[in-house]
Automatic annotation (TrEMBL):
It is a peripheral membrane protein. Residues 5-112 form the Glycosyltransferase 2-like domain. Pfam families: Glycos_transf_2 (PF00535), Glyphos_transf (PF04464). Belongs to the CDP-glycerol glycerophosphotransferase family. It comes from Streptomyces thinghirensis. Keywords: Cell membrane, Membrane, Teichoic acid biosynthesis, Transferase. Its main location: membrane. It is found in: Cell membrane. This is Bifunctional glycosyltransferase/CDP-glycerol:glycerophosphate glycerophosphotransferase.
Length: 743
């Protein structure tokens, strides 16, 4: 049996769950088991648990068949625990390094107490860490082991279960279980502390308590479920009634009850407005029914509020809270005035348009900071024209790109009056990046964030760990992301990352990438047309080289001797080179293009056509690899600077260990792979198959249709994903040529 059992209830935490589990599995103490309880989570959390359990036998997964809530999920895990001690860890929190060793050593040093209380710290999205304000209560002064009567101030710690280790035989003997409903920690915490005869403390931060920016916290949820607090304290006092020997705790627990009721009343964002009076009267009834003889109210304003509860003086309480709200309103008005002054910079015209009604049939598209008409927004635009022709489609582009907009679609130049009018009036805004900070999200407007690639490199808040790669204002970033209503995901891997690094209240749509529909559904005619447009001869081999942006390089200097590559490959091979859009035109590439040794396709409007034309892809850290994998054609990773790139920018997996095909770290190695044909072997095909199943899982050719039906036509359920092995395959250039010859 292990020394420690960690019970981890899991519900809608796929963005945080891997970090939680990794923090446990990475501990230097290995004498533990994890009992992970999937509380019928509707996201990918259950699958993540299963993947971890396959890799580590210390993880035991329970999949509940219905959602039972946090308390009963913990009970299910508790029943399966076999360790000497039980700990509870919420699945969006993490353990600090060395936490389990410190807990085990302290348990041994104090001769296995019934409860060990340890410290925690709050962590925030912006990297702030705030210590427990009552950490002083965990100072190891006096005896190592004591009862609560000797240190009653421990009751003033936050009423949580996950900052303690409980001896399992003590839990069984006491009959402790978690009740259903909100505030389920209160009965367990109070009843365990007052029952224990031997308590110890550990003055060390063992848990990092994540303060989620959006969701995951009942304390930020407006609901009548906050009335559950009455049932929880009924359980506390029922426990006292059943244990006369614990009568001394009636006074202290009465005070905890009154404080808790007042907290629920005072904190905004908990009780619905029409339920506040009812809650107060119930709190007052409990107060009077449980008031201990000789009880002394606390001094000052808190004691005054106790008096209002005792008298059931709701009107007086409302007046007191109104005074607080008035002060808050003054602060809010000041902030609003500042915001208005900022918006005045947008111009009176935009403000006037914001006051006009939304146009329910108007859709505004933009892509890559309005640089082009492409990517997922363009694919959604085309499908919208097919399924909802009544919608009026508008593209926001820079003046030099207006010719890219499809015929029949309105064009608005970025910065023009028409542009600001469309931003203000369109019901739907679709983009693969964020709109400018100055754009106002109107009530009723729907923002669709399509993204523009599966991430290998760190994104969003994860970039805070790699300051050399960015000077981003992360608070501003999240304000922009707050405007999203839908986030389009190509795979579960991306879903988990987006939801963690952009922690806002959008809905994730796991549809696949609309831009990849063209790759799944392409015919031999499409392949031949793409090659003909590039002037590629029949039978000629074409390699598409697409390196990505490097923050530590000021311009596009390919890490390849392109002239030598072209010479070595010979006249029957064409090298297509596409630089990252951040770099613009490159004099280096332009010179090689003039010599005729390569074809510069950096300015080609549709990268999907380049994918169809190419026999193989050579890339490094670009998201192109995830899209090109849809075609099931060879991919060569040329990564001579992997150590530098992964250190400066950070990556989500080791490309050297999990590549989509062949890997080369030197130019000589790359030339050998290309010349010998080793880039397309049984081994590279197996790697590519595993890569495709992981990252192309939703790309079945119907992604754009899913988005249009869900977002614009209001269909609640998404079209089912076509099973991976049943999807159509676009022919390779060689296969498309064979089809022509047969015909």
């Amino acid at each position: 049996m292990p020394k420690l059992s960690l019970v981890v209830p899991v519900y809608k935490v796929q963005g945080y769950l891997p970090e939680c589990l990794d923090s446990v599995l990475g501990q230097d103490c290995t004498d533990f088991e994890i009992i992970a309880v999937d509380d019928c989570s509707p996201d990918g959390s259950g699958a993540i648990l299963d993947e971890y359990a396959k890799r580590d036998s210390r993880i035991h997964v329970i999949h509940l068949t219905e959602n039972v809530g946090l308390g009963r999920a913990r009970n299910a895990g508790l029943e399966k625990a076999t360790g000497d001690y039980v700990l509870f860890l919420d699945s969006d929190d993490t353990l600090s390094d060395g936490a389990l060793s410190a807990i085990r050593d302290r348990l041994d040093a104090t001769d296995n107490p019934e409860i060990l209380v340890f410290d925690y710290a709050r962590t925030y999205w912006d990297g702030r860490v705030r210590p427990n304000l009552r950490a002083d209560l965990l100072k190891q002064d006096g005896p190592d082991v004591f009862s609560l009567a000797e240190r009653p101030k421990l009751l003033d710690l936050l009423q949580i279960v996950w900052n303690k280790a409980y001896r399992r035989d003590f839990v069984t003997r006491t009959g402790l279980t978690f009740p259903p409903g909100y505030y389920e920690d209160a009965p367990w915490t109070f009843c365990s502390l007052i029952s224990a005869e031997r308590i110890a403390v550990l003055d060390r931060v063992c848990v990092r308590y994540r303060q989620r920016r959006e969701g995951g916290n009942i304390l930020k949820t407006v609901s009548r479920k906050h009335f559950d607090v009455f049932d929880q304290y009924q359980r506390v006092f029922d426990f006292l009634d059943a244990h006369e020997e614990l009568a001394e705790w009636r006074g202290p627990l009465f005070r905890k009850m009154a404080d808790h009721y007042l907290t629920v009343l005072e904190r905004p964002g908990r009780l619905p407005q029409d339920a506040r009076a009812e809650f107060f009267h119930r709190a007052s009834a409990d107060y009077r029914a449980r008031l201990p003889k000789g009880f002394t109210r606390p001094a000052g304003g808190r004691g005054h509020k106790y008096g209002m509860l005792e008298r059931d003086a709701y009107t007086t309480m409302v007046s007191a809270l109104a005074a607080v709200k008035f002060r808050q309103r003054v602060k809010t008005r000041t902030r609003t005035a500042l915001n208005r002054s900022k918006r005045s910079a947008m111009g009176a015209f935009y403000q006037s348009q914001l006051r006009l009604p939304l146009d329910d049939n108007l859709v505004l598209f933009s892509a890559y900071w309005s640089r082009s008409v492409s990517c997922n927004p363009a694919a959604i635009d085309a499908e919208l024209a097919r399924l909802a022709p009544h919608m009026r489609r508008v593209w926001a582009v820079r003046a030099e790109n207006a010719a890219q907009v499809p015929k029949g679609v309105r064009v608005v130049r970025v910065g023009s009056r028409e542009y600001w009018a469309a931003l203000a009036r369109a019901k739907y805004l679709v983009n693969n990046v964020n709109f400018a900070d100055s754009v106002v999200k109107r009530e009723g407007q729907v923002h669709v964030q399509t993204h523009h690639g599966t991430p290998l490199k760190t994104m969003g808040l994860d970039q805070q760990r790699f300051p050399a790669s960015t000077d981003m204002d992360f608070e501003k970033l999240l304000e922009r992301c707050d405007r999203w209503d839908f986030s389009i995901s190509a795979n579960r891997f991306s879903t988990v990352i987006w939801e963690r690094v952009y922690p806002c209240s959008y809905t994730t749509l796991e549809t696949g990438y609309p831009r990849n529909d063209a790759l799944v559904n392409a015919t031999s005619e499409d392949v031949r047309a793409a090659r003909a447009a590039l002037g590629l001869a029949d039978g000629a081999k074409a390699f598409l080289y697409m390196p990505t942006h490097r923050e530590y390089q000021p311009g596009f200097t390919p890490p390849l001797d392109l002239a030598r590559i072209a010479d070595e490959l010979g006249p029957d091979v064409t090298l297509l080179v596409r630089g990252h859009y951040f770099y613009g035109s490159s004099p280096h590439v332009a010179e090689l293009r003039r010599t005729g040794r390569i074809v510069d396709v950096s300015g080609h409007a549709r990268v999907e056509e380049l994918y169809l034309a190419a026999d193989a892809l050579i890339t490094d850290y670009s998201s192109a690899m995830f899209d090109y994998a849809v075609l099931d054609r060879p991919i060569i990773s040329y990564v001579p600077d992997w150590d530098v790139y992964s250190a400066v920018r950070g990556t989500y997996f080791d490309l050297l260990q999990e590549p989509p095909g062949a890997v080369a770290t030197t130019q000589a190695e790359l030339l050998r792979l290309l010349a010998s044909g080793e880039y397309d072997s049984r081994d590279t095909t197996e790697r590519r198959d595993a890569f495709r199943r992981r990252f192309c899982e939703f790309d079945d050719g119907h992604a754009a249709e899913r988005v249009v039906r869900r977002v614009f036509l209001g269909e609640e359920s998404l079209l089912p994903i076509v099973p991976f092995d049943e999807r159509p395959h676009a022919p390779t250039p060689a296969q498309s040529l064979e089809l022509v010859e047969r015909a």
